[in-house]
Structure formats: C-alpha cells, structure tokens
Amino acid sequence: MTDYSDRDAVIVGAVRTPVGKGKPSGALHGVLPADLLAHSLRTLVDRTGVDPADVDDVIAGAVTQVGDQAANIARSALLGAGFPETVPGTTVDRQCGSGQQAVSFAAQGVQAGAYDIVIAAGVESMSRVPMGSSVLPGSNPFGTGLAARYPEGLVAQGISAELIAAKWGLTRTELDEFSAASHQKAARAAKDGLFDAEIAPIAGLAVDEIVRPDTTVATLSGLRPAFHSDAIAARFPQIGWHITPGNSSPLSDGSAALMITSGAAARRLGLRPLARIHTTVAVGSDPLYMLTGVIPATEKVLSRAGLRLSDIDLFEVNEAFAPVVLAWAHATGADLSKTNVNGGAIAIGHPLGASGARIMTTLVNALYQRGGRYGLQTMCEGGGMANATIIERLG
Question: Which InterPro entries does the record associate with it (predicted)?
C-alpha cells in the first residue's frame, strides 16, 4: 500500500448520479439542479459515514449560473441535502473544467491546512438551463480589449474542434471510429457492473441514459456536419467539416461529488482513502484553438509531478469532441488503450459543471478495477484553458 502523510489531500468517497439526456424528454429533466446536486452530496456523506457538520466547505462547479442554477447553487444544494446551516458552500466556473477545478481548490485547501474535510462537486442541468443562456441579449461579457486583441474574432467550440481536426489531419472516419468505441466501452462497463460503485440512482434512473450500445461507424457516418457555415468556410478553407452530433459530447444532466480530507483526518475518522491527489495544474492556451489546452496541461502536470508519461496507468481526457482526445494522443504520445477505458463523454455525456467531478469519480474506480497506481485527468475548457490532475491510488 502506498503510504500517505497527515497533510496529503486524499479522496475518501466519490459518487455521481447517472447522466441523463439534456433535453426535456430526459429522465432527469424534472429534477431541479439544486436537488440533483443535493442527491450526490447526501449520498456521499451517507456512504462515507462522515457527519456533515464536520465538512469545512462545499465547492461545486457549475457553468451556466443563471435561472435554476443561479444564486450559489452549492449553498442551496447542501442545505437541501440536510447539511447543518454552519456548512458554507461556494460555486466556481472554469467552464467545462469547473468540477475538476473544484477538486483542485479542495485539495489545495487541505494541503494548505485550511480544510480538514471538504467536498468537491459539480452539477449541470442542460435540459433546464440551456448552454449560453447566461449571456443576455445585447450584453457583451467579453469587453472591448479582447475584441481589439483578436480583431478577426474568436469562434465557437465546434469550429475549434473542426480546426483541430484539420491541423492534425484527422479524418471523419477516425473521429467516428473513436466515437463508436466510446459507446461500446461505456456499454460494456455498464454491463459488467463497473459503474455500480459510483452511481447513485435518482428519479428512477440507475444507468447512464445516453449510452447507445448499438452505435457503429456506419450509423455515425450518416450524420451531417453540425457547425457548417459559409462565412466560416470562407475564413478557414482548411476545415473539412467532420464534426457531427455523433462525434461530439451530447447535452446532458448530472451531478457528482467527492469527499477530500487530510491524511490526518482520514486516520482520525477511520476512513479508507481511495487515492491521494498528487499534483494539480491549470493552463491557458490559444483561445481560437481553445480545446488544445489538454496538451500543455498534460506536459505541465507531469513535469510538476516528476513523472513520465509511461508512469501513468490510466488517462481520462474529456471527450468534448473526438478530435480533442485524438490530437492530444498524437501530440503527447499517450496510449489510447489506457485512455477513457470505461468510455467517455461522447457516450456517457458531458454535464458541463459536473464533468470534472464525474470523470474523477470514474477514474478513481477504474484505477481500483485495473490495479493501476497513477491516473491522469485533463479537460479542455472554453476560452482556451485546461486543468490536469494526477491522482495516486492508495490501498
């Protein structure tokens, strides 16, 4: 067993809801986001046996903080989960990496001595709070300075994915093969019970709703490009228009939560640490090719950790779009057979603010299932950023 110190930040519990379709027809549409997050929080303290009164803080990621997800949803959810009024909560937004950033902030707080027990979480109900709805008509959240710096204008993430596919010479067939494999891996993992330990059923849903076991390259090949426009084609003639709904992550609903404690607190409470958070980093990257931040983030976290790529047993790279993971693998030399081994966001879904915590929950369990030591997780983020985290399995 790998030892850990009193000041190490260790994960002692991790749960998630099933991921639902982010549409009004989805199984979780009827659940308010605060209640969706409260379910993960309540399940987490129930499974760990920790008294919620001992939790120093709840840090939750949420991207579209408006409407049903407004007003510091972390605090609303923890109160809704029955936590004492003395427990504070805060909500963070690092775009798609918000849940992973919550984990980083929680770990850093433990390592600094500010927390003994903290929960890192995330939530997004894309069926109830549509992506982009926080940008009001006529508003300008970007400012004049950014517009002056990028006079030709930035682009939507789907176009960034197209640019990445073109830059790395990725074909439509390669993207669809990767995407079909994501569904097949996720379906196999569910069938084999590999998600059972992490999922907390809710609203009658006990499995991820979006996974399609019968997905094939042939079925995906019939889908039309999702982001084509004549104006963009004129500006970027190199684009091959390969990005479709089938090789992109779908709109999704879900939440996840991890309990992170100091090594000393885990020993005092008799908790069994699952993993220690070894190293965390965040990087900025080109906001035009905004999804490539996973490449420098991987390089930075390995350097800071004093590890090599070959030391990593499992990788989780968020499948916002298929070219993100394939370009990352080309650039870093990482082994795709060790990447997203139980499927990724293209199949399972990508509830924006929750995904970082969802993926970390899956990574912790996958390390145990496969007997691995080190896991590396990285996520691309809107605006050209990425988080990367290395965890080390304990026990």
Answer: Thiolase, Thiolase-like, Thiolase_C, Thiolase_CS, Thiolase_N
Question: What CATH number is associated with residue 13?
Answer: 3.40.47.10
Kindly give, in sequence order, each residue whose CB lies less than 8 Å from that of residue 126, ignoring residues fewer than 6 positions away: 22, 64, 251, 252, 253, 351, 352
pLDDT tens-digit readout, 87-143: 999 999 999 999 999 999 999 999 999 999 999 999 999 999 999 999 999 999 999
Is 380 noted as a catalytic residue in this protein?
yes
Instruction: Kindly state whether residue 387 falls inside one of the protein's structural domains.
Output: no
The reply to whether 39 belongs to the active site is no
Among 39, 183, 278, 350, the active-site one is 350
Looking at the domain assignment, is residue 50 inside a domain?
yes
Domain that holds residue 27: 9-130+250-275
Other beta carbons within 10 angstroms of residue 112's beta carbon come to: 10
Active-site annotation holder among 29, 39, 96, 278: 96
In a domain, 47, yes or no: yes
Domain count of the fold of the chain: 1
Domain membership of residue 358 (yes or no) is no
Question: What pLDDT, in 10s, does the model give residues 300-351?
Answer: 999 999 999 999 999 999 999 999 999 999 999 999 999 999 999 999 999 9
Q: How far apart are CA 57 and CA 140, in angstroms?
A: 33
